[in-house]
Design a protein that fits this description.
The chain is an alpha+beta fold. The protein has an eight-stranded mixed β-sheet, sandwiched between helices. Strands 6, 7, 8, 9, 10 and 11 form a six-stranded antiparallel β-sheet that branches. Strands 13-12-14-15-16 form a five-stranded mixed β-sheet. A hairpin with an 8-residue loop joins strand 6 and strand 7. The relative contact order is 0.07. The N terminus is likely disordered.
């Protein structure tokens, strides 16, 4: 049921971590020893263009006075330590006792915490806040030793947790912490509370003389620290700009930031939570009306704090931080840290700002992980970990939740029990590697079942207060639990990415798209707040207006390149014949430049020396894949597109200041979009064959694909056929290979549903046939070649009655019912004299995937277990048949249409388990073809002619 009202109750105190429980009981007597586990770095599959190193794994040994335990292996050291601690707790029988602080207890603890923060013991500690207190002693006059309350609220996590127990709304509005601290100081003696004019706290009694002398000795230099920051104006009409801040070692850095914001006192500066990673020191510094800070008790009827300053909310800054930012803001990375008493700082550039901006979307997170902002796209599907590049889907989802201040996603994989399905062995899609779920996200697994058919995974997105926002329940199942987790994560990410691009779309429309992705929106308010860039429990802004502003000013980092058609495409270099195809892994070197036409101005934006992606899964900008598919290894391509959005340009450009100046000057032209364009240069350096071919090449010489061609050629020669029809010709590999043999064919035709594949086939055949006399092509009898676009399950009378038909490794890419339909259409309507059909033998996957093949004496149950552990050879395969299933299909088909069928194959042997790698059925008819057979077709499909060659017109 949708939650429209959010309860304002104190959140439960979280349970202690296993390590914290061990520390409570054993203290320093607990010894953690973490060791790195070495693994073989060999690739899962041979032939990858870019060698893939396996990640480091860690194992932890926990030594206690009473026992010693060793954890499993994990990708992170902290997870190994927590696992070892959890194992020790279970062995010792320790039952964690948790208690929830009441608001009254929390307030008492808060008073004690504030008192401790101004004690001499805390002053000499290594806490970042103690460094702030020391730095304030360099302030002049009445401000000497005055610590802004906002600093205490921002840099003491324990104090912040206590404030959350008192008022849960501080989670989404940390400004409220200030009023909690002020109330606590009124109960203390020796630390005066601040007045309405001064939002700081100062210790009334001075620190001892030896402490003050140590402060003077800490840093005697007057060196000036210079670093860049970003100013984000409150008005969306004004652009962001880079500012240079200069701070000496004898100054309190917040005073300098206050001056930049137009204030003299750092007490007027409020500080956001840290942005990005938990270890990041990048924060927003801003201000808010004092009337609200000092009197936040004003309530609306629903109990929420009234906002009297909607007109000054900084939409862009609020979107970055997930909380309300008021007025102008400075985005800077400067702070005191745990590591050193020296001031830490680093530059925040325009590029940094826009990278943070695009990092709020799943697609942007993936782009950043690939370091290819202008080329990479979030893939449409997760095939195998071996083929995936960049951050994994599950990790991207966890990062997305952290960026939007949500709880860690809850993954609930569960097993699907198999049901009797006759003689047909159903096998789900599957991946390769097991991915440990170790980064803190909750994973709930069901008990192990002996007759499991696969895994599904349900995912829940929750707010910080554990309110359910989204529920993703995919219907697909997978052989491995982690494959189910990654595929479910990617489905949710794809929908979120789509939704965040179109946040002005009515919510009703999003409900419709969510259903298509098996996603349920459980809380309209909480989900709409994600879209609006606002944090949980703080939806006071007009959402429609906020969406409009975000869309026009900071959310327009559109990755949908519709309208960015390729212009002036030029491909240079000889055709090497090594070309990408669906499922292959091309590796490119590319550069993208901003070009100002008529001004002879060209500025590089992004350069990548090695970028590998899988064809056909949407892992790259569409027009880049479109161009690469027309290239062969060694060739260069040059083309232009329309100007990209500023967000993508600035997130990619190394010199963002220069790029900002360039775009600002170009914007003065009357037609900004016509004055600029993006220029791409791409060099195709390598192409790794699809996973299926790489597995086959590892075991077969010559390659299995060549063996299939040779099998077909042998039958063509023996049949003395003069016409050939290739069903599912793809990129024309078989048709092109036939030109190398002295065969009797005079007319050959190919049919395929992929226009890209047919374009590639036309290019190959045209090149080969055009140089027939010079290249010495073996077949001199070819008079006609024609390529058609269309489905092989449709009938076209123009292709009726060919001598021989071929369908090599095609039917497995169709659904099983479509494969059966093709068989009936091919033998019942096209009626070739001979039809050769090949398809993978699923049982041979045991060999290809480096398992031990079953022996003749193995029990049936053991063989079935081995088969169930196998995967399909290609992620695009919809099914793969065993020998028995294939024979049953082909025999039934031949009987229905009065054909004879013979079985054979290539790769392996029929007499040795598990048979041929590719199983082949050869259908032959002995009856005479009658013209009235055409009457069997109720409908006729007109194929589109894509390319045609005739020897008379060459």
């Amino acid at each position: 049921m949708e939650s429209e009202e959010l309860p304002a109750v104190a959140p439960k105190k979280p349970n202690l971590t296993p390590k914290a429980i061990i520390h409570q009981k054993f203290g320093n007597k607990a010894c953690y020893i973490v060791e790195e586990v070495k693994e073989d770095n060999q690739n899962e599959c041979p032939g990858l263009s870019v060698p893939q190193m396996k990640p480091c794994l860690y194992r932890c040994t926990l030594q206690l006075p009473e026992l010693s335990v060793v954890s499993g292996t994990f990708a992170k050291k902290k997870d190994a330590e927590q696992s070892a601690a959890k194992m020790a707790i279970e062995k010792l029988g320790i039952r964690p006792v948790t208690s929830d602080l009441t608001p009254q207890e929390a307030e008492e603890s808060l008073v004690a915490r504030v008192a401790y923060l101004f004690s001499e013991k805390f002053f000499i500690s290594d806490h970042p806040l103690s460094s702030h207190i020391r730095a304030t002693l360099w302030r002049k006059g009445d401000l000497c030793g005055a610590v802004p309350i906002s600093v205490i609220a921002a840099y003491d996590a324990k104090l912040f947790s206590l404030c959350k127990c008192i008022n849960p709304e501080v989670e989404s509005n940390p400004i409220l912490v200030i009023s909690c601290i002020m109330r606590a100081t009124t109960k203390l003696h020796g630390i005066p509370a601040t007045s309405q004019q001064h939002l700081w706290i100062r210790k009334q009694s001075p620190y001892p003389q030896d402490i003050m002398e140590s402060i003077i000795r800490e840093d005697g230099s007057q060196e000036c620290i210079r670093f860049s920051a970003i100013r984000i104006p409150s008005s969306v009409e004004k652009p962001i700009e880079s500012v240079m801040l200069c701070i000496s070692s004898k100054e309190y850095y917040l005073d300098i930031i206050a001056n930049e914001l137009g204030f003299e006192d750092a007490a007027n500066v409020l500080i956001s939570r840290n942005l990005g990673k938990a270890s990041s020191e990048t924060r927003l510094f801003f201000t808010a009306p004092k009337s609200y800070l000092l009197d936040p008790s004003s309530k609306l009827p629903n109990g929420k704090a009234t906002l009297h300053f909607q007109e000054s909310v900084n939409v862009r800054a609020s979107y970055l931080s997930g909380q309300n930012i008021i007025g102008n803001a400075i985005l800077a990375s400067i702070a005191y840290t745990w590591k050193s008493r020296d001031l830490f700082y680093e530059d925040v550039t325009v590029r940094s700002y826009y990278r943070m901006l695009i990092g709020k979307t799943p697609g942007g997170i993936y782009k950043s992980s690939r370091e290819a902002i202008l080329a990479a796209e979030l893939p449409s599907r997760f095939n195998t970990r071996a083929n995936w590049r960049g951050a994994l889907p599950r990790d991207i989802l966890c990062m997305f939740c952290r960026q939007h201040r949500l709880s860690e996603p809850l993954f609930s994989p569960f097993e699907v029990l198999s049901e009797s399905s006759g003689s047909c062995l159903k096998v789900a899609n599957s991946g390769i590697d097991v991915i440990e779920c170790v980064d803190g996200a909750s994973v709930t697994a069901s008990p192990k079942q002996s007759d499991s058919e696969g895994f599904k995974c349900e995912i829940k997105l929750l707010s910080r207060c554990e309110d359910l926002i989204l529920l993703c329940s995919p219907t697909d199942y997978f052989k491995k639990q982690n494959d189910a987790i990654h595929n479910a994560s990617l489905k949710l990410l794809s929908w979120l990415n789509q939704s965040l691009k179109n946040i002005i779309v009515p919510l009703e429309k999003l409900y419709e798209t969510a259903e298509n992705f098996n996603i349920q929106i459980c809380s309209k308010i909480l989900f709409r707040e994600i879209l609006a860039g606002q944090s949980i429990h703080n939806c006071q802004l007009n959402v429609i207006e906020c969406n409009r502003l975000l869309e026009s000013n900071c959310m327009n980092s559109s990755y949908d390149m519709s309208g960015n058609g390729v212009c002036s495409l030029k491909i240079e270099g000889p055709d090497s014949g090594v070309c990408p195809c669906n499922g292959s892994l091309p590796c490119i070197r590319y550069s993208v430049s901003l070009v100002v036409e008529g001004e002879n101005m060209k500025e590089f934006i992004e350069v990548c020396n090695e970028f590998e992606f899988e064809v056909g899964v949407g892992a790259v900008i569409p027009y880049v894949e479109e161009v690469v598919m027309q290239m062969s290894v060694g060739q260069y391509a040059y083309f232009t597109t329309n100007l990209l959005t500023p967000e993508l340009i600035f997130a990619s450009a190394g010199d963002s200041v220069k790029m900002l100046s360039l775009l600002s000057s170009v914007a003065l032209y009357s037609c900004f979009s016509e004055a600029c364009c993006m220029e791409y240069e791409i060099h195709l350096t390598k192409v790794a064959a699809p996973l299926e071919e790489r597995m086959e090449q590892a075991l077969f010489s010559p390659p299995l694909s060549k063996q299939r061609v040779e099998f077909a050629v042998r039958h063509i020669v023996e049949s003395h056929a003069t016409t050939l029809l290739d069903f599912g010709c793809g990129s024309g590999s078989l048709l092109e290979a036939l030109l190398n043999y002295p065969i009797s064919l005079e007319k050959i035709a190919g049919v395929d549903i992929s226009q890209k594949g047919l374009t590639r086939a036309a290019k190959l055949l045209n090149s080969k046939l055009g140089s027939n006399s010079d290249a010495g092509v073996g077949s001199t009898s070819i008079k006609s070649v024609i390529l058609y676009e269309g489905s092989i399950t449709n009938f076209g009378s123009g292709l009726h009655g060919f001598d021989i038909g071929t369908c090599l490794e095609v039917i497995e890419h169709m659904d099983e019912d479509q494969a059966c339909l093709f068989g009936d259409v091919a033998l019942g309507l096209f009626c070739p004299r001979i039809l050769i059909v090949s398809t993978p033998n699923f049982e041979y996957n045991i060999v290809l995937q480096r398992s031990n093949p079953p022996t003749q004496g193995q029990e049936e149950s053991d063989e079935k277990t081995l088969l169930q552990s196998c995967k399909f050879r290609n992620h695009d395969h919809k099914f793969e048949w065993t020998r028995e299933q294939f024979r049953q299909w082909a025999s039934d088909l031949a009987t229905r249409h009065n054909y004879n069928v013979e079985f054979s194959g290539v790769g392996g042997s029929a007499d040795v388990e598990p048979g041929f790698a590719s199983q082949i059925a050869v259908f032959k008819r002995e009856w005479r073809l009658e013209d009235d057979l055409l009457k069997r077709a109720d409908t006729e499909h007109q194929y589109n002619v894509i390319w045609e060659w005739n020897s008379r017109n060459k």
